Amino acid sequence: MMHAETAPPGAAAPVFYQTDEEGHHSEGSTMLGFWLYLMSDCLIFATLFATYGVLGRSYAAGPTPKELFDLPGIAVNTAMLLFSSITYGFAMLEMDRDRVKQTQIWLAVTGLFGAAFVFLEIREFVHLFHEGAPPWRSAFLSSFYTLVSTHGLHVSMGILWLIVLMVQVRKHGLIVENKRRLMCLSMFWHFLDLIWIGVFTVVYLMGVLE
Amino acid sequence: MSADAHHLTGHGQDTHDSHAHSGGGHGTVQSYMTGFVLSVILTVIPFWLVMGNVLDNSLVTTLVILALGGVQMVVHVVYFLHMSTKSEGGWTFMALIFTITLVVIMLSGSVWVMYHLNHNMMPMDAHDVMNNAR
User: Less CB within 10 Å around the terminal CB: N or C of chain B?
Assistant: First the structure.
């Protein structure tokens, strides 16, 4: 579609941006497309949750969730992610008002909360390894690490994306393209917080409860 | 969620407003704060129930925290992801419903089938270490 419209002039790049900017439709379909990606990501997490649901009680005479999980630490982790969600929301509100500096500040705060979450999760994993609970110890631990680290990897990628977008906003300002990108990341970020609700409920709270 | 919080005059104005009208806007400070406060409440209650051992019956506690988790997911979808039945002409909602259906079938099906499989296989391996470990 882009090619057909940009075929006559030799320089493709500027014209490409132009079409993107004008097309109100293209922004809408980007959001819908990104939403569909999130739904497919949701299915990945659903399969991992199902795997954990099936294997989560197979301890192979190894450590149980009750012995391993530190709920106050998980509560702090949860708070980090929840705070990062609301600060991203504030960044989006500042973006709506076209205030570059405030947007950047809130994005940075979001990134720091996200980094704190990843740091605490890695620290928890290191602690579990020291406790004699590596992934290969039991089916429960294999499925636990797969599920939780997939989520952690998503958050890490989200932070990387956030840094890239902050550089973009710094270089080009809050142009339409950057706004669209920030809106996509916003959906991604809130989606990860939503998945975490499932993780702390099913894995940590229900694990300790048994 | 009123759209009059958008007072900008940039070229993105039209796009944003039409989005807000179709129900896919960014929300307001109030909507974000409502979502945040609800999320905090819905997070604190399950942690309190489990850590404080408030209810003696662990099955009831499990059902309650699962229900609260479900409610909090809805809160996130509505107040943070700004999903409504009308955003993007209803297509995001359709995709969401489709995904939820798949997820429910996959989760309940896997757990159900594997539970019965485990159950029926139990007498076969009485020396199974896993059974003793429980």
Answer: C
